[in-house]
Amino acid sequence: YFVCFISALQDEHGLPKYFEGDRIYVRALVVADYDNAAVTAHFRAENSLSAWMNTHKVPAIAGVDTRALTKHLREVGCMLGKIVVLSEEEERRSGLSLSALAALPSATAAEQRGENDATVTPDKAEARLRVERRQAALTMWEEAIRNKAKNLPWEDPNKDNLVALVSRKEVRVYKSTVVDPNLRDVLILCVDCGMKYNIYRQLLHSKFEHCNIILKVVPWDFDFGNDEFDGLFISNGPGDPERCEKTVANIRRVMERKIPIFGICLGNQLLALAAGARTYKMKYGNRGMNQPVIDLRTSRCYITPQNHGFAVDESTLPRDFLPLFVNANDRSNEGIIHRTLPFFSAQFHPEASGGPTDTFYLFGDFIASIMKAQTLKQVHTTPFSFPQKFQKVLLLGSGGLSIGQAGEFDYSGSQAIKALKEQNIFVVVVNPNIATVQTSQHMADRVYFLPVTDEFVTKVIEKEMPDGILCTFGGQTALNCAVKLHEQGVLAKFGCKILGSPIEAIIATEDRKVFAAKLEEIGEKVAESAAATNTEEAVQAAKAIGYPVLIRAAFALGGLGSGFAEDEETVRRICKEAFSHSSQVFVDKSLKGWKEVEYEVVRDCKNNCITVCNMENLDPLGIHTGDSIVVAPSQTLSNEDYYRLRDTALKVIRHFGIVGECNIQYALDPNSEKYYIVEVNARLSRSSALASKATGYPLAYIAAKLALGSTLVELSNSVTKETTACFEPSLDYVVTKVPRWDLRKFESCDPLMGSAMKSVGEVMAIGRTFEESLQKALRMVDEKAGGFDESVCHFFSTDEDSAPSLPGSDFKTSSSGECMRGGCGRTDSGAERQAALLEAELRRPSPNRIWALALAFQLGWTVDALHEKTKIDKWFLSKLQNINDIKRQLTQLTLDDLTRADFFYIKKYGFSDRQIAQYLMNSPSAAALSQFDVRRRRLHLGVRPSVKQIDTLAAEFPAHTNYLYLTYQGIDDDVSPLAATPSVSAVFAGARAEKREEENAETCRDDEDESLLRRLSKSSSARLRTGEGDAPGKQCFVVLGRRRRQETLRIER
Asked: Which of 455, 699, 825, 889 has most Cβ atoms within 10 angstroms of its Cβ?
């Protein structure tokens, strides 16, 4: 939603630091959702995306079902398109103006319309007239748009030589900023076919051993075949490579001279053409930041950024060339290499500033080939593990359910058993909890309902003699037990091997002192910290670090025994509890108010690494992540933030040698690029279960397979059935997790949230917008809530934070944390009491925080004021304010006012029928309404949700999954309904009859709800609608065409 200020941000070569070219070449932008009112507090943000695009004259359209569009392109291939927008002059000529649309009919006119019909009240007549005027205006806009679309010519970029358009026109020389006068100068000639600025930066700003870099950059058609230089670099570029005949001819002459050559993207295709191979146009192309590519020399898989529509035909390569890389998804060529000469290329972008740079090492390989000094090259070896056959494996469960360790470990353990059984392994489970799936009769081969302690597990090992033990699927309980078994020598005595992550890696992540030392070895840091084995040591450590500090118990679950201390007295109090759970405590510098971000990372025995999901806490650091609302993927990080933390996560998991899945948590300073690593969990966790369900990636199942020695490349994506498990999921939706409390059962519990987890469960919701997923989740957390609902707000009073009782107040107070609810129509003293409690709640949050935010917005608090009190990011707060703004708009309307477009707009932000009725009833002119009245009106207008799949790759590949969610921001379903069974056929028949009756009664639907793909297959002019527009305003048409056939998709805004 934002861009940084760039006019003065240039390097010493005059290149902009944050852009890849001198201007924007993209012709238009299509997005699913855009909120121009969203506020960003990112320290780099200087402008909104909308304003920046307006400056560069790049049109954009939002409100599109991008998933349906992706599916269509996947099937028919790339298509031509138009976005048609009326200018202000064209609006005036068509008789359209926003002021005219905003004008409402007078009361007199409404009464006149009601004179001839006694059943039509003036209010209803006025509402009907408003609807008719809006519909008439939309019809006028539609006609004007269609007339302009007919006269707007198609523009086919494939007819142009795009390389000639984007290539520089003059020769320029650059010298490296990292220069050693004692080293040799190396001249690299770069052919600019649309060369990205980050290629300049990587070559000029990186320190390469034994040489200084000089770049000579020439245009695409420059005659360089006979020039003198040390190495040839062929850059990326757009369009058909066969249009670059001059470049290909020059490359052939360089190949004859045996000068080292390295090509990227288009450079890969040009090198192949120069070698005598052929290229072809792909149906869809490979585009995105998460394309998995396999190095055919080592079988390592890398995540790469790509954007190309042509590929090399491997079957036409001459005998002296070999494929170097292959795409793990569609098996297309991703690079070639000569058998004996220093020629190689990559189809992807190892230099990309906007994506992963996992393959930057290729630049080093290129420089090494130029130096021609074999002794200077680094030796790389490929990790190899000899096949091992496991006959019997012991799986440690998590024991009884407790706060911080509940059903998510039953899920992970069950998935592990499934993976083991597929390998014909005899599975033994130790878990005393009978109320789990993993202890069911059909799961494990043998179950011991015993405590997961070293004493009992030792006896099981002695009796069963397993070949290996899995300890990362049972939470902290299983992990602690395995560490004790290792320290006691039990595992070595009975020849029982820990599968997956080595025990040394587990200990290193759990012991804070070892953990910090290991991170320092790779240049990463944790917040200033010290370990203590008694209270006096903890007090001295706190004084040395400086207050406030965080006290944490080692090897503890869910932050048990932890807390923030502002003084010595608090340190002693917290340590008293912490040492009851552990023999060691950690004293950490407090980072309250920083962002908390998590990454779920997977690594196999061959060092392939991927990040499956990243998540962001709505609450700042200081509240346990188990008690915080969590959003996936992150919403407030910049692209640079995301990939910087991703690169760190991969570096950390490789350094510790973790095999399987791990979770890494960061504290990120919202006002700078500074971050600390909070902790690394070398096991499945609550976040792992959330990430697995959020992305559709079976983390626990894959982790179990990896523990047995499989690699990510060998395993398949269980959703697509045709791609590998070595990929990073794409999410075209938002997932929100909201914790659930039940503090009424724990009267002595402090209700305030902090570093120790207190929630007893959580819910997860999925939507196309943050507002939609949040409101869905809130309705599941509290059945009384309609969504982001101030009416369920209550307060927890404590001796420390409660305001003094006021005479006449309608609030009840209790020092034990009794729930106190407020109502409407309070006295002045009651309002003062409410304000005081609200202030305390925002300052020291309890489980009531989200409802208190709803109340605060209802009372007129601003985003800035709430940010100051809560430190919640302004982006999240502005989204909550958006929900509140829609509530207020609803109170000014009646049910008859709501058009089909209004319903889609409201539903896009997660409002339920009950919630809509609740706020319409607050309108002075509204009669008593129920959710059933709203539902009937909604169905009458044809407003129904679409069914979407959680398919891991955002519709780029066909999915085979029944993992679904509903959303109103869609135009078709990803799956078809199942055929009715005989036992329920009558029910379905009745539903179909009711649906036919509703459709016959509709007068404004036409064919608007028909499937996009069906419409496109039947007609050359189809209407794609997610609603008739958010409000009377500008409309846009997206017109798509392919070959001789033209297909029109209409999106109204």
From this structure: 699
